[in-house]
């Protein structure tokens, strides 16, 4: 599996373990890194008039010296620009010594139209905002719109958070090593990387296993092993029963979108739970989806006793207040072991309702036998439940989601163009297959329904949340322009078909 993402500390650890295990030493790894980048440059830009290689003082610059030497040996016209001297005895110093091209100071950097830039100024070691010569080079290259091949990361992009520190290159291709880093997927970093090429530099799988990363790119490989497929002897309730709470008469659509998505995602039975005064509105719009009156907490208990739904969605269009809190806490008070309630997806108004009662919610979710709680906040909703975490500028979106999941004892789906899914056990995944077509009213309601549908079919909470986010994003990206939320439940069908095929293999 190559879905792991390495933090800077984990990458350094992998590097250290790989060197200790041999056969390559640090300079050997650097040579492999440089070879990979040079091969990409030669393959992608065979006609480049001139290649400017920009080297910083650290090992990212070291990779750059290797690239400059190899490109020159291949007959390319290379101009080498350096900022700072590699530390004596470092691998970068060895690489610089082996590169006999004339070195120009980066402060004098100029380039010509039609040339290509290899960015080896800073990578994993970026420690402060770009300034001086490095910033000047970014301005020149950006102003001339020259194509950039970035080594490891575009200089200025933090590998940990994806933030742009000061300014950063915008690469056409970024070549990174062993595994991707969070900054390749989190915004705005993802946008600055262009296409990301992962190069094998000889850090073997068992080294990554030893490092045991807890952060992943959200791709099917992460959860396909638990992706549900109906058994031959399935009946509808065996395939899972999802219930979705509806709002009042003028706010029923969101629940129906969730319900339809849960049904499409494979839950065998889906029920909309409606207040009495909205029964007629809901009834007029439901066919295969069942409808049941739920007005008070007793109705929730009766439903759980009678119909044994395995998952719930509460929040879309529901309204903010006591009722949302009481229903949520009633569900969380059930025991999972009884087979009663597997889990609850709390979205939208459901989340906002706990703005001033977070401790009650987190305590209920943290009870050992409690059903799984999955919360799906967008940025605004996240800030309502986790104001201090949201305001902490030292934390990346990844770190924020992880901390929130731990505090709330809940799986957190921190939505957006770079959705992060975090589990209270420390695992986290970053999603990268979305598209802005998904930014349409009701899209989040559909996501909540897909996750609940997967949960009802027995998928564990973190995996169900990851799969839901990926499937939702994939369907929206493939559909493209014109997408509205009503399209999404049907648009997930071809995606599910492919996943079911691959799960069967
Ligand atoms: N790990 C591996 O397996 C492999 C890693 N490899 C490569 O190594 C790279 C990481 O190397 P690295 O750790 O030496 O860091 P790097 O990015 O070169 O920068 C550090 C230097 O820059 C300086 N500096 C930073 N920001 C600055 C700023 N804004 N303005 C000014 N100065 C700034 C910083 O100064 P300091 O923070 O110490 O003051 C320090 O001197 C990695 O990205 C990959 O390409 C490959 O060889 C394959 C194997
Ligand atoms: N620019 C974007 N790129 C990819 N996905 C996006 C983008 N904007 C929004 N989304 C996704 O669309 C969904 C919107 O959900 P939400 O904000 O709850 O909307 P609504 O309340 O209208 O349903 C989320 O899954 C989010 O991750
Ligand atoms: K770089």
UniProtKB/TrEMBL annotation:
Residues involved in (6S)-NADPHX binding: 59-63, 123-129, 152, 254, 317, 378, 445
Record domain YjeF N-terminal: where: 11-209
Cofactor-binding details, from the entry: Binds 1 potassium ion per subunit.
Keyword Lyase: yes
Keyword line: ATP-binding, Isomerase, Lyase, Metal-binding, Multifunctional enzyme, NAD, NADP, Nucleotide-binding, Potassium
Necessary cofactors: K(+); Mg(2+)
Record-listed AMP binding positions: 415-419, 444
Domain of life: Bacteria
PROSITE patterns per UniProt: YJEF_C_2 (PS01050), YJEF_C_3 (PS51383), YJEF_N (PS51385)
Domain YjeF C-terminal, first and last residues per copy: 219-499
Catalytic reactions of this protein: (6R)-NADHX = (6S)-NADHX; (6S)-NADPHX + ADP = AMP + phosphate + NADPH + H(+); (6R)-NADPHX = (6S)-NADPHX; (6S)-NADHX + ADP = AMP + phosphate + NADH + H(+)
EC number: 4.2.1.136, 5.1.99.6
A Pfam family hit: Carb_kinase
Amino-acid positions noted as binding K(+) in the UniProt annotation, renumbered to this chain: 60, 119, 155
NCBIfam families from the UniProt entry: yjeF_cterm, yjeF_nterm
Function: Catalyzes the epimerization of the S- and R-forms of NAD(P)HX, a damaged form of NAD(P)H that is a result of enzymatic or heat-dependent hydration. This is a prerequisite for the S-specific NAD(P)H-hydrate dehydratase to allow the repair of both epimers of NAD(P)HX. Catalyzes the dehydration of the S-form of NAD(P)HX at the expense of ADP, which is converted to AMP. Together with NAD(P)HX epimerase, which catalyzes the epimerization of the S- and R-forms, the enzyme allows the repair of both epimers of NAD(P)HX, a damaged form of NAD(P)H that is a result of enzymatic or heat-dependent hydration.
Subunit structure: Homotetramer.
Family per similarity comment: In the N-terminal section; belongs to the NnrE/AIBP family. In the C-terminal section; belongs to the NnrD/CARKD family.
Name of the protein described by the UniProt record: Bifunctional NAD(P)H-hydrate repair enzyme
């Amino acid at each position: 599996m190559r879905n792991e993402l390495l933090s800077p500390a984990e990458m350094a650890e992998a590097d250290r373990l790989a060197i200790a295990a041999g056969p390559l030493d640090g300079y050997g790894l650097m040579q492999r890194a440089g070879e990979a980048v040079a091969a990409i440059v030669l393959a992608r830009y065979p006609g480049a008039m001139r290649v400017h290689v920009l080297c910083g003082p650290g090992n990212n610059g070291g990779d750059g010296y290797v690239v400059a030497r190899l490109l020159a040996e291949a007959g390319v016209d290379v101009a080498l620009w350096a900022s700072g001297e590699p530390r004596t005895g470092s691998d970068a110093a060895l690489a610089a010594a082996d590169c006999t091209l004339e070195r120009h100071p980066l402060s004098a950097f100029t380039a010509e139209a039609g040339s290509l830039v290899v960015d080896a100024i800073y990578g994993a070691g970026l420690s402060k905002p770009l300034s001086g010569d490095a910033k000047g080079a970014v301005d020149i290259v950006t102003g001339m719109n020259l194509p950039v091949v970035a080594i490891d990361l575009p200089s200025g992009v933090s590998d940990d958070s994806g933030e742009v520190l000061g300014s950063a290159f915008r690469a056409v291709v970024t070549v990174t090593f062993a595994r991707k880093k969070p900054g390749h997927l989190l915004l705005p970093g993802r946008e600055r990387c262009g296409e990301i090429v992962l190069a094998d530099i000889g850090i073997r799988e068992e080294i990554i296993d030893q490092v045991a990363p807890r952060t992943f790119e959200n791709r099917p490989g992460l959860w396909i092993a638990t992706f549900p497929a109906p058994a031959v002897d399935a009946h509808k309730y065996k395939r899972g029963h999802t219930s979705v709470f509806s709002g009042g008469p003028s706010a029923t659509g969101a629940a129906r979108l969730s319900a339809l998505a849960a049904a499409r995602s494979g839950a065998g039975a889906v029920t909309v739970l409606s207040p009495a005064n909205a029964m007629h509105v809901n009834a007029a719009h439901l066919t295969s989806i069942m409808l049941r009156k739920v007005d008070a907490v007793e109705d929730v208990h009766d439903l759980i006793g009678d119909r044994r739904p395995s998952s719930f969605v509460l929040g879309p269009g529901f309204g903010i207040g006591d009722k949302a809190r009481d229903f949520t806490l009633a569900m969380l008070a059930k025991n999972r072991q009884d087979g009663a309630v597997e889990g609850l997806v709390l979205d939208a108004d459901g989340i906002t309702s706990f703005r001033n009662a977070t401790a009650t919610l987190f305590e209920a979710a943290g009870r050992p036998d409690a059903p799984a709680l999955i919360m799906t906040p967008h940025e605004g909703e996240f800030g309502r439940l986790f104001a201090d975490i949201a305001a902490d500028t030292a934390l990346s979106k990844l770190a924020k989601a992880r901390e929130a999941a731990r505090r709330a004892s809940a799986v957190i789906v921190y939505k957006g163009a770079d959705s992060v899914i975090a589990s209270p056990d420390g695992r986290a995944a970053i999603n990268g297959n979305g598209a802005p077509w998904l930014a349409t009213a009701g899209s989040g309601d559909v996501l909540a329904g897909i996750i609940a549908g997967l949960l009802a079919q027995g998928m564990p909470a973190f995996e169900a949340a990851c799969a839901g986010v990926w499937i939702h994003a994939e369907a929206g990206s493939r559909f493209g322009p014109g997408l509205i939320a009503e399209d999404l439940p049907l648009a997930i069908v071809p995606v599910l078909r492919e996943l079911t095929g691959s799960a069967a293999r």
